[in-house]
Amino acid sequence: MPQFFSNKRLIILLVSIIILVALIGFSMKKRESLTLPEQFLKDSAGLTQTIFYKPANTLAGFFENLAEMKQLYKENQMLKARLDEYAKLYVQYEEVKKTNETLKAQLDKEEDLTDFKVREGTVIGRSPDQWNQFIYINKGEKDGIKPKMAVISPQGFIGKVTNVSLFQSTVQLISDNDRTNRFSAIVQGEKNIFGTIEGYDAKKQALVFKKIPVDAKIKKGQKVITSGLGDVFPPNLLIGEVIDIEPDEVGLTQTAYLKPSADLYDIDHVMVLEREMPAVDESLREKEEE
Amino acid sequence: MKKVFLPFLIYLAFISESSLVQAFLPHDNSMDWQLVPRFSMVLILFVAMYVNTTYGLLYGLAFGLLTDLLYTDIIGVYLFSMAATAYITSIFSRYLFGNLIVTLLLSVVGVSILEFFVYGLNSLIGISTQMLDVFLYKRLLPTLILNGFFAILIYYPFVKQLNQIKDTLKEN
Fold this sequence. Notes:
The structure holds two protein chains of two kinds. Chain A has helices at about 5-30, 35-70, 70-105, 280-290, and strands spanning about 115-125, 135, 150-155, 155-165, 170-175, 180-185, 195-200, 205-215, 225, 240-245, 255-260, 270-275. Chain A is an alpha+beta fold. Chain B has one domain (about 40-160). Chain B has helices at about 1-25, 40-50, 55-70, 75-95, 100-125, 130-170.
């Protein structure tokens, strides 16, 4: 049997390991925009993905329908019961909305911090190795999508846009364990309790909600929403529901586990939100400087 | 036509991975299996085994780079892992007789080498936080079964094509 590694091959291996480390180091830096060849590659792959995804999705939808047929009756019963509840809530909502409008009119307040512009997109693929939780949508720079915009599905907040090429963009889901993938959030209750969402716990199948003050009292089942601080994401987007709370390793803060309200796997259509009003008015800032 | 056939086929497999994961694979919470289709890798392993090492290495480099650019955030992980996997597998295949069972075994070994490489590198960088036992049972085992099935499925038609390609290479 010949030698597995000859000297020449050993040198090639070492050189390639050095190149590997250099490349990883280069791409670990958070880049704001993609280079031109990267954009071109992503666009052309996105095109083929779109062609591929449609028939695949129809086929998958067919099987899903067959499975759903069994539960249809039960679900129908439940939904009917919920419908009455909905009617009641709707009346309440209308009333609150009206009072809110009159109050706003009294205050002369037109723009609202919670305003945002909505763009719709269709999912064309997903990162196949499930280390990276990325999905790809068929809207890009051409449609006005920019990095760092919030992305929601009808059930709730799912992530943010990380990079954009001309015709498609990449969305990083909240379950991605990247160290820069962090969101400030609030536990809804009588008093707002702040914390940050830092990735996903695969064992518990829940989002990790860290840095909650140690004296804050949180109950299971409370809802968690985005805070809207840091003027990137709109506030009040539903993220999930608390299923477990435990003290931190050091005991200075608490960590809660959230069940995401949106299904992070079965996503078809998403909405990309752009916040309309910047947090600080630029003209005001200039005046102050003068 | 014959020259584009192989890259085109691997590219199709490569794109189908992404749609498959999004549209088909079970995301049932009760099982929490992670099935990862590595179809392009299996095809490249076949090329490395049946055509020659250089071809396997080149395809491994090309599609590794493509995977890095399109499906991940970090360049280099798949570029290195896929090329190295193709190389190691083609060296193994020199000492083994090529039939269905051996090919299946080698593709399964190849896919697990790739998974280990990627798992190791991603753990170093901090992208994956999975424990080793969870990785072995919940991810590696189901992934190997899925890709093993794929290897059996394509064995007869694909090897026939590869042998033809090898013959034309010899003639030139």
